Amino acid sequence: MEVSFKAISPSEFFYKNRDIAGFSSPARSLYMAIRELVENALDAAEAGRILPDVFVELVEEDGEKNVYRLRVVDNGVGVPGDKIPSAFATVLYGSKYGFKQSRGTFGLGGTMAILYGQITTNKPARVMSSTDGKTMYVYDLMIDVVENKPRIISSEKKPSPNGWRGTSVEFSLEADYPGSRAKILDYFKHTAVVNPHATLTFIDSRGRLYHYPRTVEKPPEPPVETLPHPVGVDVEMMTRMLNETKARNLASFLTTSFQQIGDKTAKEVLELAGLRPDQSPKKLDHDQVTALVNAFKRYGKFRAPDPKPLSPVGREFLEAGIRSIFNPDFVFVVERKASSYSGHPFIVEAAIAYGGLIPATETFQLYRFANKIPLLYDERADVAWKVVEEKIDWSNYKVPKPAPLAVFTSICSTKIPYKTVGKEAISDRPELERELTMALRECGRNLKLYLSRIEKREAAAKRLSLYTKYLPMIAEFAAKAADMRKPDIRPLLKKMGIQEIEQKASASEEQDREAG
């Protein structure tokens, strides 16, 4: 029997397998569409060091059941007019494939949302963008699924209204807003926690307004694109780099194509690979390329990857975001030093908040973030859950049950090791697990100090209440027995109470600090 073979485009693959990208149901798909477009909007603003203003509107289409019109508008750097069709109507086409941190990773983002909208409603998307605040490009687009290329329905170039600069994406999609409302509102709330420099506005299909104003009036430091680290290179990547390099010899190729390789290191690596420094990079055969990659793996003396491509949330920003949303009585934030896995740099941040608007529950509330993205699904499959539940014994930190406790974990990296394309759960890499454990233990120790102070103050207050109750009686009976006038002991009680509370709290704090 004859068997036929054929290739399919990325668009067709995701058209047939949209569940892989998280577009698995009308409810989940609406959440994913909003998330992908908001992430693009935040990245576009931060790329230009602009304080983000992101507006999201959801409108139910007249006469069509479960069909909504979604519009997301930002004030970012915009997309050049000639790049708009490819950027929004070609799957796996984008600006996020360099060696630096970004919210998006796979080049799907808004394109996958638009593809889902086209699949379910067969209506074009409208994209408007301006890069200079003067000229605006407007496109009505659909995706040619078979060819994986844009199909332009109409295009227009006109003046940008009111000097607006940024990008607006609007399209129809089949959705279940009542079924996804809770997750969508959680998404905006959690996004505000790790992006306190952004103003987020959401108007839902019933006209209800959800507004999160910025609480930090400065943009974060953006990540800086850099060269790949040699430890993370495989044979395929090495072959491509050798074919594309302009270096005339291997020594120059190594020092100009990778970070953390100087002349001495290049010489030692090439000697380990059995290659000459003056050999031409483009004339290496397969075995020589393999030998060079194996030398990278065996060298063992490379310095840690450069953390410049990373942009963590930051202590100031994370604390400001937590306080603005939860108003806790206590919050402590830890930012670990940069580490790496498989040649990819990463930074772990963790925070603990206690009291305030956090409800008291039997178990902790875990808020997970990766590259400033809230992770709301697949919680128990995530490395953060494993660490918080299995590696941390909260009873050691005097946490009562129930307790108004919220735990926050944030990982930023040039390559987050997600378990799926849907980007909701992070793999339990040993390096990540270790850094998360260290960060949360430091948070726990500081929470213990706080709870100990509260405990000692409560004990001192209890003792003071006993003094207040019984000392007046003792003074009265003693005065009668001595046939004297009853003394006024109120100044004494006041003095004893202040000294008692201050001394006990100070002693407790010192003891706990030494123990910690």
Structure explained in plain terms:
The chain is of the alpha+beta class. It has helices spanning 10-16, 26-47, 84-89, 109-121, 177-194, 235-244, 250-257, 263-273, 286-299, 315-326, 383-391, 430-481, 490-515; strands at 53-60, 67-73, 125-130, 135-144, 149-159, 166-174, 199-203, 209-212, 330-335, 339-341, 344-354, 365-370, 373-375, 405-413. The strands form 2 sheets. The protein has an 8-stranded mixed β-sheet. Strands 9, 10, 11, 12, 13 and 14 form a 6-stranded mixed β-sheet that branches. The chain is globular and about 115 Å long. Helix 8 packs across helix 9 (286-299). A hairpin with a 2-residue loop joins strand 10 (339-341) and strand 11. The protein folds into 4 domains: 10-212, Histidine kinase-like ATPase, C-terminal domain (Heat Shock Protein 90, 2-Layer Sandwich), CATH 3.30.565; 230-299, Orthogonal Bundle (Helicase, Ruva Protein, domain 3), CATH 1.10.8.50; 315-443, 2-Layer Sandwich (Ribosomal Protein S5, domain 2), CATH 3.30.230.10; 450-515.
